[in-house]
Amino acid sequence: MSKSVEWMDANAVSNGLGDVAHAYDIRISDSEASTNETLMKTALSSAVDGSVLCVEHQYAGKGRRGRQWLSVLGGSLTFSVLLRFERGLQSMGGLSLVAGLAVARAVNRHSRHPARLKWPNDILVGYRKLAGILVEAQGDMNGSAFAIVGIGLNVRLTDTQREGIDQAVIDLAEMDVTVGRNQLLADCLRELHMTLSIFREHGFPALRDEWMAMDAYSGKEVSLLLPNTQAIQGVDCGVDNTGALMLCDGNAIPTAYSGGEISLRLRTCG
Ligand code: ATP
């Protein structure tokens, strides 16, 4: 397999998008601290729905709670998408799960090793993390609002780069996925377009079954780490219609947990 880097090219992405190219306004940048931060600034001024910022080199990528996301020059696919919603923040429940679903679908077009989902929005292959998503939203509860959906996906990481990450990781090269980054970005955007059109019209319930079918932790013993550092144990029972995680913890009815501050951990891999 060739190790030459395919640099990002907005025209190649548009060509790959075909009949949904009109839905996106794609910009490629050489270097950004964080695509989410840059796109957030433009979203607060005039940027249109479907604006995409893809970067070759992101040097201060963010995860949840200020954690770091590692991107490497030529070895990552790193981009953010601006999505505007006229019915406010209340209509965006489950959006981060929908974004995860879109990325997993795109990867699965090319992979023999199934990409699956970890609540709320990581993409795993064999319990190792292939991609992460950070959704940041602003606006009115019921009026105009927007979300920046930031996606980082590992294409090819060196051993030294992997050692800098404090959890199990995987990249496309290891999975023998050879699709170019431009085509992969086009596929992610195409799947995002398809899942979003369902989500905008019917909400998360219309995508819930598909999400659950790809849930890597379904039926597994898990721990939930809450913001107050409390750990709760139980069995992952999927997600409810709002995208909240349902934990079967011995009570008759599963308890629903939601919010960007909660971490899910597997207790057994059996
Ligand atoms: P949690 O496990 O607590 O739910 P998370 O795994 O979803 O959180 P995020 O905040 O989404 O974490 O992402 C940041 C974390 O992802 C980092 O703390 C690091 O462990 C891991 N990470 C950072 N860069 C990469 C990468 N390129 N590939 C895989 N994992 C990464």
Domain module tally: 2
Q: What helical percentage do the residues reach?
A: 25-40%
- How many helix segments? 6
What share of the residues does DSSP label as strand, in percent? 25-35%
The profile of the biggest β sheet is: 7 strands, mixed
| Global shape | globular
Topology:
Elements (H helix, E strand, L loop, with lengths): L9 H8 L7 E8 L2 H10 L6 E8 L2 E2 L5 E2 L6 E10 L9 H14 L7 E3 L3 E4 L2 E12 L5 E10 L4 H5 L17 H22 L2 H9 L7 E5 L5 E9 L5 E4 L6 E3 L5 E4 L4
Parallel strand pairs: 1-2
Antiparallel strand pairs: 2-5, 3-4, 5-9, 6-7, 7-8, 8-9, 10-11, 10-14, 11-12, 12-13
Helix pairs in contact: 1-5, 3-5
Could you explain how this protein is built, in words?
- This protein has 270 residues and is an alpha+beta fold.
- The chain has two domains: 204 residues, 2-Layer Sandwich (BirA Bifunctional Protein, domain 2); 46 residues, Roll (SH3 type barrels).
- Helices cover 25% and strands 31% of the residues.
- The radius of gyration is 18 Å and the shape is globular.
- The model has no long low-confidence stretch (mean pLDDT 95).
- The structure holds adenosine-5'-triphosphate.
- The site of adenosine-5'-triphosphate has 17 residues, from strand 4, strand 8, strand 9 and strand 14.
